[in-house]
Amino acid sequence: MKTRGVLVIADGLGDRPILELKGKTPLETANTPNLDRLACGGIVGLVDPYAPGVPCGTDVGTLCALGYDPFKYYKGRGPIEALGAGLQLEAGDVAFRCNFATIDEKGLVVDRRAGRIREGTSELASSLNKIYLSEDTVAFFAAGTEHRAVLVLRGPGLSPAVSDSDPGTACEGRPMRKVYPLDNTPEAAKTARLLQKFLDIAKEKLRAHPVNLAREAAGLPPANAVLTRGAGIVTTIPLLAELYKGLKGALIAGENTVLAIGRMVGLEVFSGEGITGSYNFDPVVKARLALELIKRFDLVIIHVKAGDLAGHDGRWDLKIEVAEKLDLLVGSLLDGLQAGVHVAITGDHSTPCSVRDHSGDPVPAAIWGPAVRSDLQTHFGERSCAGGGLGRITGSAFFNVLMDLMGFTSKLGA
Amino acid sequence: MKTRGVLVIADGLGDRPILELKGKTPLETANTPNLDRLACGGIVGLVDPYAPGVPCGTDVGTLCALGYDPFKYYKGRGPIEALGAGLQLEAGDVAFRCNFATIDEKGLVVDRRAGRIREGTSELASSLNKIYLSEDTVAFFAAGTEHRAVLVLRGPGLSPAVSDSDPGTACEGRPMRKVYPLDNTPEAAKTARLLQKFLDIAKEKLRAHPVNLAREAAGLPPANAVLTRGAGIVTTIPLLAELYKGLKGALIAGENTVLAIGRMVGLEVFSGEGITGSYNFDPVVKARLALELIKRFDLVIIHVKAGDLAGHDGRWDLKIEVAEKLDLLVGSLLDGLQAGVHVAITGDHSTPCSVRDHSGDPVPAAIWGPAVRSDLQTHFGERSCAGGGLGRITGSAFFNVLMDLMGFTSKLGA
């Protein structure tokens, strides 16, 4: 029998002991009666997003949390960002993360972010979109948030094995890098040549663009060059529906990378007011939307970004607040859901306040619902989950366990 | 932020219930207040060196304990022994473990160890070193401890797929085996032919060697043949410094195999007085050296062999003694280290006294230090570690977790 489920992915969930909290973590310190209800009635454990001690990026950690093997399907950040910017991708496309940047007359990079340009980037991007670089290869270009953009090259025989034109952070004042192939294949040579051609055309087109003329008139740095990095080739990734008996899933998120991954695996994505990827997200809005969507989807995934931000900022006080908002979200779910629906929570990686970056620590996780063999744990925290009935498993295993409890897995063998 | 760490690898750590100890293990019986301090303030768990139920050799178990996948990098015992004997190896070399042996006039193996010869083996080995077997292939030969030696063949197109000339234990009285290729490649054929040529030359040279003439005059069995086994091809293994952000590591050990592996992965190795691979090792000498080295290395690894010896000897009384010396070592570390340094302990495999050999039982393990989410366990023993916060992880995962807590891992994805 199939049941429905809501999965909360708490970005950056999991922390390390904090001296000011008497050696407790923010989650252990926070007042979380609803998360504890989940732990009490459900089964808890520790989840290594990819493997013990391996810190994951949000992209890799989210793929793992959705059941995928990142080494099979993760081919660089470019394709994920391109999907996030709303571009339609095809297998074989090579995609790049881009910055609009400012270069001087000598071609030196003056500002890698073109003064963190916000206005006019769509117009700039349009002027670089659908440029034929050869008879068989076309460039698609789209603006992202602020100075960010994405480039997709589409044509036969392309390769992601090309160098970055972006000289990298702390390299301002140096020239843009020439693109060169990173291996000896004709594909890499072709891609490097066409990418360089695109970058040269971009400089010409951007120099004379009205948006830049206006910026210069206003004393702002013009967005007169494109820097590329994170080349990745687009592969076909099986949809969740193909892997799990036609699973119909929805994703509520405010973060572009996560939304892009959601689209990639065939989730219907929901964003909008109150559903931000910032501290100011509204837990009740997210929960209410989930309660609405669960009527027509098998699985509703809610992504909450804010804990990761607090970790990066080293702000355990804010991480406690986020944990309590997460608790409110889970409380609204538990109160509003019909009997028989599973509720699960995990993270894409830990972001300890003391590290101010992602770490390889496992994240606490729980599943609650009718099919669960509950354990003796009564609190949802890093240490209590270590003693839970789920044991210590990987991110993709955790997703598989949830799918199995919900009745969406298929037998291996007969 | 990076922190420093000391890792104790206790060879043969972990045992099974012993009737005479009322079903306890030697480690559970020993008085170990310092190991318990480690468990109490830190996090414990069970480590499967390679995988649950798989007994590992010291070579494989040590590679795993240092974070490596043995199936990727372990290519037979020969290369490790050759490194242990101090030979410089190059990728593509094929190395063999050797015995000096005694054969009679008919070529039958009379003694596989040439009377456990100790004197004169360097002179014998010199006479077999740097022999050109063909225009492009040269043999290097060096003595090891007692009757042991190593052979390295260097030249283009060699293969480890050749049979042993050693007829094996319990085969004395039988002839030395002819070497033959183990697959149909020209590389295996070439290697078998040149190895056989070397073995024939060795018989000629050893027969007339002054060391052997003197042995025969004294009524001792001459070392008049070389038996080969454990062929392995030398591959390039990435250094720990390449894998973990420039990690600078030192290894304190008295055992040749472990020292060889240490050199192979780029550890600076320390041996000498008190630092033996036997029962008589001095725990305080090892700890003091570690306290000295931690001032200039990120990671200091201390290898302790004696527990493995006690297991092989089936001596639970000695294994209890070793556990208490290990405890003294850890106590000296905890007392002498500055705050902020991580201390970890694991094993390369279990050597239960009842088995008198390596078993596939997991080994107890612990990590102690500022970044650790401690658990509720207060004792360091096989059974208490089973309930610890680390859960049950592999040897290489355990090393990765330590590296992550110390700040030496890199993010997967972005």
TrEMBL record, chains A, B:
Occurrences of domain Metalloenzyme (ranges): 4-402
Pathway(s) of this molecule: Carbohydrate degradation
Catalysed conversion reaction: (2R)-2-phosphoglycerate = (2R)-3-phosphoglycerate
GO molecular function annotations of the record: metal ion binding; phosphoglycerate mutase activity
UniProt superkingdom: Bacteria
The entry's keywords: Glycolysis, Isomerase
Protein name: 2,3-bisphosphoglycerate-independent phosphoglycerate mutase
